[in-house]
Design goal:
- With about 210 residues, the protein is α/β, with parallel strands linked by helices.
- The chain has a single domain, classed as Nucleotidyltransferase, domain 5, CATH 3.30.420.
- Helices cover about 40% and strands about 15% of the residues.
- It has eight helices and five strands, in the order αβββαααβαβααα.
- A five-stranded mixed sheet has the order 3-2-1-4-5, with helices on both faces.
- Helix 5 links the parallel strand 4 and strand 5.
- The longest helix has 21 residues.
- It is globular and about 50 Å long.
């Protein structure tokens, strides 16, 4: 696998549309963007984004008024298994915009800020699929995975054989984050933002999570 830093350098010199060079410029100090996608399924190559949401975090403040939300009309078929998860029907997304028109707005919202998410690799892969078509590159933003932050705070010094639970619902309960309706892109982004703020504060103060919690 090509290191992300090397891929960023390659994409910077091969950027097809120079109006998107802002993606390679650092965002405002101590700001990140937390984002989440809902999709027609779990294949980054065959499935499509049907909703995408993001919220900015500055320091330890979630800027709830600075949010991005969009519903997209997919080309791929809506799978029954996915509908059971996100509860969006064909009729709910038919009025959505075209994803290739939504992605530029999303890019201008995130800029060059680091991206935060829960199992972020999949969401990034979904966006990258469209971004490669649009301007021939992948997202160059630094990535911060909240499950990795949680693992470090709770299991980083655990003895071998310790049971590890990195499920979204477990982290929400363990950190005392308000449980919003899950599998709604904006709600998931907000809960992830609350996780991030709490874990970042713990990391800065050197505080660990007791393994007797949760």
């Amino acid at each position: 696998m090509i290191p992300r830093r090397l891929k960023r350098w390659f994409h910077q010199i091969s950027l097809g549309d120079q109006s998107y060079r802002f993606l390679f410029e650092p965002g405002p100090d101590d700001e990140v963007v937390v984002f989440d996608c809902e999709t027609t399924g779990l294949s980054a190559t065959k499935d499509d984004i049907i909703s995408i949401a993001a919220v900015k975090v500055r320091g330890n403040r979630i800027l709830a008024s600075q949010k991005f939300e969009a519903v997209a009309r997919p080309d791929a078929m809506m799978k029954a298994e996915a509908i059971k998860v996100h509860r969006l029907l064909e009729s709910d997304v038919q009025g959505g915009g075209m994803i290739m028109q939504i992605i530029p707005d999303f890019l201008h919202f995130i800029g060059g800020r680091p991206l935060v998410g829960y199992y972020l690799e999949f969401d990034v892969a979904m966006v990258d699929k469209y971004l490669r078509q649009l301007i021939g590159i992948e997202l160059p933003n630094p990535l911060i995975e909240v499950s990795a932050l949680y693992y470090d705070r709770k299991y980083g010094n655990a003895p071998p054989g310790t049971h590890v639970d990195l499920s979204f619902a477990h982290i929400v309960r363990d950190l005392g984050v308000p449980a919003l309706d899950q599998h709604d892109a904006f709600n998931d982004a907000m809960m992830t933002a609350m996780m991030y703020v709490q874990l970042k504060d713990m990391q800065e103060r050197g505080v660990r999570i007791s393994r007797e919690r949760g």
